[in-house]
Specification:
The chain contains seven helices and no strands. By secondary structure, the chain is mainly alpha-helical.
């Protein structure tokens, strides 16, 4: 579990600019795929899902507490394509970023 806690701490620090699990494994000096094995062993979501959830949670916060456009938020979260960001956001929350903002304002 210590490895997962370290991973979660690194996510908190780098989630906006780093979307590749290999970056985190490298930072932790562990072999590729080891983080996934540990997550599975402890019945935790896969590392990519933990990272994505942190990005979505932060995006939710930005949608509610700022006037930034969805496009600006997508780029701030280091998504190269705002449409892809919107699709991922909707898949995870059930509503588009624009609808989320309208519901929670």
């Amino acid at each position: 579990m210590e490895i997962l806690e370290k991973f979660k701490a690194l996510i908190e620090e780098h989630f906006m600019e780093e979307h590749d699990i290999a970056f985190y494994e490298n930072k932790m000096k562990i072999k590729p795929k080891y983080l996934s094995k540990v997550s599975k062993k402890f019945n935790q979501p896969p590392p990519c899902q933990l990272l994505l959830q942190k990005q979505i949670d932060h995006s939710r916060h930005l949608l509610i507490h700022t006037e930034k456009t969805v496009k600006e938020i997508a780029y701030e979260m280091n998504f190269q394509d705002p449409y892809y960001f919107s699709r991922v956001f909707k898949k995870k929350t059930g509503v588009s970023p624009t609808q989320y903002r309208e519901i929670h304002k």
